[in-house]
Amino acid sequence: MLAEFSAVRWERAYRRVAGTAFLRVPFYRDQWVAAGQALNEPEPTRSAALAGQLHRLCPFARPYDPSREPSPWIGDGRDLRAALAMVAVPRRVPVLEVRAAVLDRRALGWNGPRYGVVLAPDANVVDDGRRRKLNLAALALAADAGQAILVGERSALDAVLPEFGGIRVITVERMTAARAVQEQGVAYDPHLGYFAATVHGCGKTHLLWRRFHARPAGGMLAVTALRRTRPVLLDVVPDGGDTLTTAACPRHGTPIIEMR
Questions:
Q1: CA–CA dist 48, 190 (Å, integer)
Q2: Contact in structure between 126 and 143 (CB atoms under 8 Å)
Q3: What 3-state class would DSSP assign to 62?
């Protein structure tokens, strides 16, 4: 994840996403209309403002149809896989993610570790008995391996850990980018998903640069998903982005996020 970075190629990838978004995606096309002219760069958009905008963030040619597909906000499991590689957890151990709903995903990408979902006590289910029954498949993955990596917010991790009994559990807390920079962890945003992580042995919070671009814009950190086409996420400001900026890691030479 840390090698072969080229700032020129990285910027070129960002420009490709921006150019495509302005031409093909209603949300960004409307920024041209509002400005009354063609724009070279989009207006940074706070992540919270994307709620309810999914239909406008998909290309004209491939609109979102909730009656025929799951929500694209589910995210790409390969982002989580890349983030976990940064924090140097064991690679072949099953990864269990605390979520509010069950997800039909068996692995984190091709040839990735096995994957399962653990429902937290506040999940949207009939009752706690049903929740525990739905958790059995994930707990079986952990039991078969004798261990598991459990990813989630701290309160959710603490709530579900007792269900694992004597199984060895490696917890990975997901947090806002600002907290990840200050406390060292995995940066998560409800719309961007997992986009940065503190590298083991380095201490800097590295952007997953093969999958995301970041730049300072208007005094904020603006993050772009380079590989996602539905929805298109261009210059999204994650929670706490007002306090963050980008830099190059003095040790690796790759993009990091840090406090301004």
A1: 9
A2: no
A3: coil
